[in-house]
Amino acid sequence: MSKVTYSNTLSPIARTRVTADRNLVLKDKIGYESSDIHFNFRKDKIDNLFRILMIGSQEIQNPYFGGFFMFQGKFPDQYPFFPPHVLAKTQGENTRFHPNYYVNGKCCLSILGTWSGPPWTSCQNLGTVAQSLKMLYIDNPITQEPSWEKCTDDRAKTYQRIISYRTLEVAVINMLNKPPNNFENFLPIMEEKFVKLYPKYIEKIEKMKHLHGKTEKSPIYGMSVTYDIKALELKFKNKYKDLFPKYNTKTQDKTNDEIIVN
Fold it and tell me: Which segments of 56-152 are extended strands (E)?
């Protein structure tokens, strides 16, 4: 097999498989969306590009709660004999959101050929790649770092707090205000989800108020944060004021309709 290339010169076999992968995720669109996974690719032509949006978690205790995590991918010219190339595009404040996702966008997964473990096989597809990315958003992510697999002490909790804060600040507000280039098509999904999750966002921010003004340093990756919970809360309230009139008739129940934003 020749060396892998990503020049968008898809071989006939690759073109057929890329088409099949697209059709596969479109066929199960409802299923993927129920798992908070959304795909985007050009409709007017078959090329090697794809984009993925996923919500990290809808569980409020999870550090990735409500975060909008975006990935840009390329199918290789020799697909499916080599895996896609994927970059994490939700970035900001020098945040290492997960041991497997680097600040430069590198995604370390064995099926992508960027980490040790079970390798890519030609029976895998765009859907299995997306599901593998989504499965990493766990409650205690520090355990995914080699030699930290059993860490559940204060170091793990510190990393969780920092990631929880940066998820709200960067992966929610910053991504809504300025998504990565060419990811603007996901904005309606993100905005509607924001309005739906808003009460829980505020609940989570309320639970973080004891951190206001404190500075913490992550036990790994050299990250530090000074928590500004008041500013964060204001950003959420202002964004909700902007978006609620646009989406309330589609996403709000009576309870949420009664929310008053000061």
Answer: 68-74, 85-88
